[in-house]
Amino acid sequence: MFVLSFLARRLAQGAVIISLVSLLIFTLLRVVPGDPVRLMVGGMAPDSLVEKIAAEMGLRDPILVQFGRYAGHVVRGDLGHSFVRPANGAATGGANFDDTTRGERAAVADLIRDALPMTLQLAALALVFALAFSALVGIAAGLRPGGAADKIAFAVSSIFISLPNFWLAIVLALLFSVKLGWLPAIGYGGFSYTILPALVLAVELSPVLIRTLSGAVAAQMSESYVTVGRIRGLSETRIVVAHVLRNAAVPMLNLLGVQFSGLLGGVIIVEYILDYPGLGLLTINAVLQRDFPLIQGIAIVTSAIFVVINIVVDLAATIIDPRLEY
Amino acid sequence: MDEAPILSVRDLGVALAPAFGGRRLLDGISFDIAPREIVGVVGATGAGKTVLAKAVVNGLDRTLSASGTVRFRGRDILGLDPRAMRPLRRDIAYVGANPMGALDPTLPVGRQIAEKMRAVTPGVTEDAARRRVIALLEAVRIPSAARRFHDYPSQFSGGMMQRALLVDAMISDPALLVADNVTQPLDVTVAAQVIRLMRELTAQFQTAILFVSSSLPVAREAAARTLVIDAGRLVEEQPTDALVARPVHAYTRELVAQIPTIWTGVPAQPRSREAGAARRPIISLEDVSQTYRVRERGTFAGTGALRAVRNVTFDIAKGDSFAVVGESGCGKSTLMRLLSRLERPSAGRILCEGQDIARLSGGELLRFRRKLQLVLQDPFDSLPPRTAIGAMLEAPLRIHGWRDAARIRDKVRAVMNDVGLSPTLYDALPLGLSAGQRQRINVARAMVLDPEILLMDETLSALDQTEQFRLLALFDKLQSAHGLTYIFISHDLAMVRKACNRVAVMYLGEVVELADNGRLFFDPGHPYTRALLSAMPTLEERRYRPEDCLLDGEPPSPIDLPAGCAFRSRCPRAFAPCAGQSPALVTRGAGDFASCHHVPAPGAGLAQAAAMGSTGRIRRTNCGLPKGMPPPSRGASQVKGRATRGEGRR
């Protein structure tokens, strides 16, 4: 019962958030400089043709009218068609205004459907790497604040947080692909292509996770239930494993919800550099090409993912700690 | 005591590790505990009682080092490492002063007790452990124990949690239980229940108890023999009754002398500053209620109404020292927030000299604020740590429009002198000041505006007895010098007995009794007041025996109040009418009122109330009936009392 009402409430809130995000993106895209029609038809096309196509596509209507029309389609699952990408996957953009292939532009939903699993796979692997490493270092550091593990954790975090991800991506590609030949780096041709970008992202993620985890564990270790637990006769292992880690997991979960958004941001750069065909690469190309429907589609899907992840995180936190209410 | 002692402490000393300064916390402590014996340990805050309790169970922090021996059944346990100590945890149990922090907040209470049982008694199955926990939870009178087994610590009240922790301690049939200040965070009626329960359990389980307490009266309730600790040294050891009757050591004599008395030896009763007819109300509450909306878990948008204060009506006369007493959750803090207009009531009116304070704004509100000032409970958190004391006291004057720096300085110096703060503190920071000094700053900060009313929210409860005495003397002096009216919000009946002339007793948001000091303590009209009096820790012979008056259980939730009298679920005298209708405040003559169906109140009371003259008013209220229903025909039980009464029983 609690779970159902929780889900109902949070999904309703989520729907509001998503529609606000799409309205915002929709409006911003239409007030920034740069005319997508000019990009589509090419620099040599006469102004009259630009206006004609723009009017045909409804781009000269008031923004709210355009948004209403767009939202109507989205609700039915239709995210529209890309302005510039052809359905057959050939070169994008149009140098010739009389390009015949323009009629069959790609559906945004299809483009996202192809790219999203790639990025989710990358994000999940990065999360696994980051969590495994942070748990190892962070818990050890939290159990003995000021001890050797704590100092190592501090040093590692400081180094990791100072490494720019674009630089690290290039260096790791150089090291693992070019010099050692262990891992493939550029493009995608199988699961092994995910490992290198995931490592880069994990390095970016871990400092914050280590910091939070060691802080949370140290804070829990000084709670009175730990001291009293020892006097009550619980073993140290039992106190740490069954109680301290359980309690320390709550701030960790909340952090993960937030970090995931950062992860999708980091994905843009890493995917672009390593030419990994995920959502990040799609986003960057869409932005460069002023591909409004695609940007909007990505924004809606991304915000939906955020909403869902935060609902899951909060639900998990509530199950661990029943005092929490969201 | 022919049996070999179960615990034998010899020359126990505890000091901070050299890295932390090496200060000695305990020195040369030696005592024995026989099997099945309850031994009390009393001493002031900081005397080393908790350190002693922790040392006895070999649970000292790593920053402390111990010397001497602690022999349990002849074996020295002081030096045992945690691993070697664990098998002994079955026989040596411990309950501390912080019940809410003793268990993991994210797991059900029952499961954690079962976990402990299985940790200290090998070979117990999970199922057997669960059955034993439920059986013991029932034994300590936790209602519907099988369901409570699955509840989380946050769903237990403090008193219930402390009982659950007693179960946790007793689950393995220990031979020795160390109880460190277990009643300290509890309300008096609940604390009395817990002590009674501990005595029963020791008899049942043949357990010896080391009962550590900061209160001698509480220790006397529990222990036949008591040790007194002062500044880390054992200064006296006697059977408790002899200790109270014939204290030998100077410190013990002082300790016994400082225990407040309720019924005997109170010199002059506090009285109102204004004589008879001159009394006029300075604050009037008219049917004041405060209801909060709280979100209900497990519903989509459901909210419950938490009725924190319900239909409270009374007057506070100018020059009175008025007390509002009651246990945690009775609504006294909400009442404080209403009186100080931090909140506005959801129904009813609060009048200050005829003005409805909920309607004040701007300059009028500022004038009201000047008239009524608040003195808070916590002397540490209520002062900004990085502001000079003089600046702290100047701030209210500046807010209220004073501009001349020299005049402000003179005024602040005068007030500091008034409350007994040295003028050299003017530019000092509050760091390092004692709780008593800090509380004087709080009083000065209120007094600097020349208020007419001081609202004291548990102002004295953070102070020890000696400081309390001094501040009460100061309050008395200020009251005569400035004609102040005091409103004390407190749970401490002994302090109220000493300092207040008029008392309102609250239970679950209602005022259940309103009386002058003498009448309340010698002839209470409400069973709840009697229960409070019977549970008070005191060294005197009690006027009200706990066996007759003490309450079972705990107050119901203010979110869904039972029909009828709110007190009936715990009342030893509940009878049929209590379930039907909530009793209204009935006059008991001479300006005293109680809301109980047992108070005989026919014609006489009405006639008396009617004869009270211009200040006494008869008012009909529909207290206890749903809104919109007509009040029942005028009867004595509908005469709702007001505090503005000329002559009391003085």
Secondary structure elements and their pairing?
The complex is a heterodimer of chains A (326) and B (650).
Chain A: H1 2-31, H2 36-41, H3 47-56, H4 63-75, E1 81-86, E2 105-107, H5 108-143, H6 148-162, H7 165-179, H8 192-221, H9 224-232, H10 236-274, H11 279-288, H12 292-320
Antiparallel strand pairs in A: 1-2
Chain B: E1 7-16, E2 24-33, E3 38-42, H1 49-56, E4 64-72, E5 75-76, H2 82-85, E6 92-95, H3 109-120, H4 126-139, H5 145-148, H6 158-170, E7 176-180, H7 188-205, E8 208-213, H8 216-222, E9 225-230, E10 233-239, H9 240-245, H10 250-258, E11 281-295, E12 303-317, E13 321-325, H11 332-339, E14 347-352, E15 355-356, H12 362-371, E16 372-375, H13 389-399, H14 405-419, H15 435-447, E17 453-457, H16 465-482, E18 485-490, H17 493-499, E19 502-507, E20 510-516, H18 517-522, H19 527-535, H20 546-549, H21 576-580, E21 586-587, E22 593-594, H22 603-610
Parallel strand pairs in B: 3-8, 3-9, 6-7, 7-8, 13-18, 13-19, 16-17, 17-18
Antiparallel strand pairs in B: 1-2, 1-4, 4-5, 9-10, 11-12, 11-14, 14-15, 19-20, 20-22, 21-22
Helix pairs in contact in B: 3-4, 3-6, 6-7, 7-19, 13-14, 13-15, 14-15
Task: Provide a short characterization of the protein structure.
The complex is a heterodimer of chains A (326) and B (650). By secondary structure, chain A is mainly alpha-helical.
Your description of this structure?
With 326 residues, chain A is mainly alpha-helical. Chain A contains twelve helices and two strands, in the order ααααββαααααααα. Chain A has helices at 2-31, 36-41, 47-56, 63-75, 108-143, 148-162, 165-179, 192-221, 224-232, 236-274, 279-288, 292-320; strands at residues 81-86, 105-107. Chain A has a two-stranded antiparallel ribbon with strand order 1-2. The longest helix of chain A is centred in the last third of the chain and has 39 residues, at 236-274. Mean pLDDT of chain A is 85; it is low at 90-98. Chain B has two domains: 7-258, Rossmann fold (3-Layer(aba) Sandwich); 276-383 and 430-638, P-loop containing nucleotide triphosphate hydrolases (Rossmann fold), CATH 3.40.50.300. In chain B, the strands form four sheets. Chain B has an eight-stranded mixed β-sheet with strand order 16-17-18-13-19-20-22-21, with helices on both faces. A six-stranded mixed β-sheet of chain B has the order 6-7-8-3-9-10, sandwiched between helices. In chain B, β7, α7 (188-205) and β8 (208-213) form a beta-alpha-beta unit. In chain B, α3 crosses α4 (126-139), α7 (188-205) crosses α19 and α13 runs parallel beside α15 (435-447). Chain B is globular.
